[in-house]
Amino acid sequence: MADDSIPTLALPGGSILQFFVMTIPLFGVYCYFLYLAITRPSIADPDNEAFYEPRIRLTDILYVYLTTWVLYAVLVIYMLWFVNKRRRLSKRYEKEGIVILGDVQYEDEDRWLVNCLFRKHDYGYVIYDLEKVASHPACDYKGPLEGKIRKKVRVYHRFPREQVSILVIPQYPYSGQPKTDLEADWASFSETYLVSEGYNEAADNNRGSIQKVMSRDRSLGIILISLGWLAFLLFASVFVCLQIDEISDVYQDESSYWAWTIFIIVMAGVTPVVAIGGNLIRWKIYERWILRSGKNARPDGSFGSPRKSRRNNRSERGASQTKTSEEEEGAYVQMT
């Protein structure tokens, strides 16, 4: 049994099995839809009593298959392309990163619904001095670097830390990430990885020492399951279109021409645009978050957003003006 005092470094070992088991009920429903498509021509006869019973249109079944096809195509492209890009970006910190000292802020909010939906407990904030980055010999960034920065980051070790190693890519001063959390990320997709002694220095006294983390890379299994789903959905969609060919003359709400048209549009148009384009947009957003996001400290040392700061300033000015007007009004009343 795993020790709860040791933070989880990667996905649990049963993640592939969990993913597979979660898809079994959906697969059962889709097999039932396929059974309906197989038996539909046998009842496509006005003389058959079953002809007048409520039915699920094969066109609607085709819509379900094609929608699921697009979703799994997005997942496959994500696992094959996006995940590999993310891993290469993460490993850049190991090859190019410079080390400075900074703090990690983490608040364990006891809101299970929010954590389940948005996984807020997986994120914290790193704070470090940009001047330390600028003074490092390897930093060749062209531009002013002053004050501190507060940046939202993915954390694996869920506890606050002070004066720990922060890795920064020199070309991107806002790219700081906690070194021990990056090591945990590397461990999640490496065959074996030795966790450095810096973890033991950053951890509190109640946490154990971790010398080696075995590989927990589960992406290949998820890709294989997703490819199996794509093969099934492609076969099922083609089969449904062929069945619609046989019954389109009997059922007025089934159209063979429309079925094949929507099939070609989804396969040749919608799938590449959504799967490739969607993952490309997501990657650009993720890359900017990793390398360029962050909030500079204000003169008072706080990290509030400029928009909130302006709104608060307006509120303070409004309150000040209101107070002044009230004083003036009171003075006017006293004078009369």
Structural class: alpha+beta
Given the structure, what is the number of helices? 9
Low-confidence stretches: 1-13, 192-215, 305-317, 319-336
The radius of gyration computed from the alpha-carbon positions, rounded to a whole number of angstroms, is 29 Å
Helix content, binned percent = 55-70%
Largest sheet: 6 strands, antiparallel
Strands across the major sheet, in which order?
5-4-1-2-3-8
Number of strands: 8
Question: Helix and strand string, N-terminal first?
Answer: HHEHEHEEEHEHEHHEH
Which descriptor suits the 3D outline?
elongated
Q: Between the first and last Cα atoms, what is the distance in angstroms?
A: 83 Å
Overall pLDDT, averaged? 78
Keywords, separated by commas or semicolons:
9 helices; 336 residues; alpha+beta; disordered N terminus; six-stranded antiparallel sheet; single chain; 8 strands
Can you describe this structure?
By secondary structure, the protein is α+β, with helices and mostly antiparallel strands. 57% of the residues lie in helices and 12% in strands. It is built from nine helices and eight strands. It has helices at 15-43, 58-96, 112-118, 130-135, 179-189, 198-202, 219-247, 256-291, 306-335, and strands at 98-105, 123-129, 148-154, 161-168, 177-178, 192-194, 212-214, 295-296. A six-stranded antiparallel sheet has the order 5-4-1-2-3-8. The protein is elongated, with a radius of gyration of 29 Å.
Summarize the structure in short.
With 336 residues, the chain is of the alpha+beta class.
